[in-house]
Amino acid sequence: MQSTPAVEVVGLVKRYGGKTAVDGLDLTVPRGTVTAVLGPNGAGKTTTVETCEGYRRPDGGSVRVLGLDPVTEGGALRPRIGVMLQNGGVYPGARAEEMLRHTAKLHRDPLDPAMLVERLGLGTCGRTPYRRLSGGQQQRLALAMAVVGRPELVFLDEPTAGLDPQARRATWDLVSELRADGVTAVLTTHFMDEAEHLADHVVIVDGGRAIASGTPTELCRGGAEGTLRFTGRPGLDLMSLLNALPADSAALEPTPGSYRIEGKVDPQLLATVTSWCAQHGVMPDRIAVERRTLEDVFLELTGKELRG
Amino acid sequence: MSATTGTDATTGVFTPAPGAAPLPRMIRAQAALETRMLLRNGEQLLLTVVIPTVLLVLFSAVPIVDVGGGKRVDFLAPGLLALAVMSTAFTGQAIATGFERRYGVLKRLAASPLPRWALMTAKTCSVLVTEVLQIALLAVIALAMGWSPHGDPAWVVVLLVLGTAAFSGLGLLMAGTLKAEATLAAANLVFLLLLVGGGVIVPLSRFPHAAREVLDLLPVSALSDGLRGVLQHGAGMPWGDLGVLAVWAVLGLGAAARWFRWE
């Protein structure tokens, strides 16, 4: 495996007119990994990916993809990458399998289109022209077109937007298999669970900048390790509870009768809390251990929900 | 993390083996696809096949328009060949390319191994294949109606090729700068206007002198007049018409190259 990263973006700036879409973004994608670029609509995800694909010329910073400049060395780069656009990309009158076979013909050593048709459930599209396929069928065709040329690196822009759970699962399985076979994947998404399930590496983007990055585990570990919630009668003595807990813990009563303990949530902590409750004659109702999710991390970092 | 989504065992199916297909294979595949898309589209067929054929048969059989001396089909066949070229290279290409741009087809192809020049070459091949089919059909019908063409076929080919270049430039300019719906409307309107005022079925001598001065400079007028000179009158190379077409070709293709927007 070569040592240069598959994608190396440093300080990328991209403006449209007076509006800055990407504002000093850094992104490094190691080869053979799945990287999820996670962020709300308008965060600059698509602009970043499309700059890597050679569609846009950066206004600042540098972009190298497989060691090449996507704008000036696009001719050498394009045969090596697979691209799934957010929508469209197919002749309105073309049939799914026809378009996939055509895309295969543009490559030297393509996959068998019939295999992809089968894998992604495109067989039912039959002779229906692209413009009359469902949104999910159009998405799956775009995914198939991105991988049929056996690329080293695929860019998937919102690959599961608008898919039903079954098609979404088929897409996830395909991405996992790509990774297992040594294909590097960069995907944008605003689904937390997608990033958590698929990605080796998550980059959280907001306002045109990468505001956090790491493995999903690393990102979720930052700050509090976890949360323990329970309900009981209102107005418990939090100071007394806190004295019983390890030093770096926090005890809160966000709403009356609802308690939250933050800290290193482990069996010992759980035992401490329940024994404190027993000593104080409190029945800890609905006791639950929660890990931080990417959703929590995102909320903490940006102060906004990823998606309503 | 991906262990939750299925197998991590390598199957080798997707092991990278990237690379572009050889250029001739890519261009052949692209031209074949573009031609299939065109022949599958009902509106396009109406424009490129049905309308020229109906006009040829109708106006040859029935004396609706006074076309001067001689057999009507001898006047009409060259005009309708010019119309066929315009319908494919200009109207059809403008509409199809406009919608390809709208549907992101051009954008997606720009990320494929197919270079832009190769895409344009394939589009040109597709236009030429369609024109050959149109011309064969119109010629057979015209001959069946008593058409007796004259002149040097080489000049006819030169005129058709230069006409195709002129109309392609204008069609691509329209497709690459306007919205798809605007292109659809404008290309059909221009088709209709040029059908009436471009010497296709109505001789330009029927128009007032001042109007004629301008109409003579239209690409479809130059193409139909040039084809008529050779095919109806057995004339040599119509240099004036060729010059008009060459100017349109240079202007149209130049402007398209300069202003065409891919997305």
UniProtKB/TrEMBL annotation, chain A:
Main location: membrane
Membrane topology of the entry: Peripheral membrane protein
One Pfam short name: ABC_tran
GO MF annotations, alphabetized: ATP binding
The keyword Nucleotide-binding is annotated on this UniProt entry: yes
Ranges of residues in domain ABC transporter: 7-232
Entry-linked InterPro entries: AAA+_ATPase (IPR003593), ABC_transporter-like_ATP-bd (IPR003439), ABC_transporter-like_CS (IPR017871), ABC_transporter_ATP-binding (IPR050763), P-loop_NTPase (IPR027417)
Subcellular location(s) of the protein: Cell membrane
PROSITE patterns: ABC_TRANSPORTER_1, ABC_TRANSPORTER_2
Source organism phylogeny: Bacteria, Bacillati, Actinomycetota, Actinomycetes, Kitasatosporales
Gene3D superfamilies: P-loop containing nucleotide triphosphate hydrolases
Keywords: Antibiotic resistance, ATP-binding, Nucleotide-binding, Transport
PANTHER family with a match to the protein in the record: ABC TRANSPORTER ATP-BINDING PROTEIN
Coiled coil feature spans: none
Protein name from the UniProt record: ABC transporter ATP-binding protein
Automatic annotation (TrEMBL), chain B:
Annotated ABC transmembrane type-2 domain residues: 39-263
Main localization (coarse): membrane
TM spans (from-to): 45-65, 77-99, 125-148, 154-175, 182-202, 242-260
Alphabetical list of Pfam families matching this protein: ABC2_membrane
Residues spanning the signal sequence: none
Record's bilayer topology term: Multi-pass membrane protein
Location in the cell: Cell membrane; Membrane
Keywords per UniProt: Antibiotic resistance, Cell membrane, Membrane, Transmembrane, Transmembrane helix, Transport
Family, as annotated: Belongs to the ABC-2 integral membrane protein family.
PANTHER family for the chain: NODULATION PROTEIN J
Name under which the protein is recorded: Transport permease protein
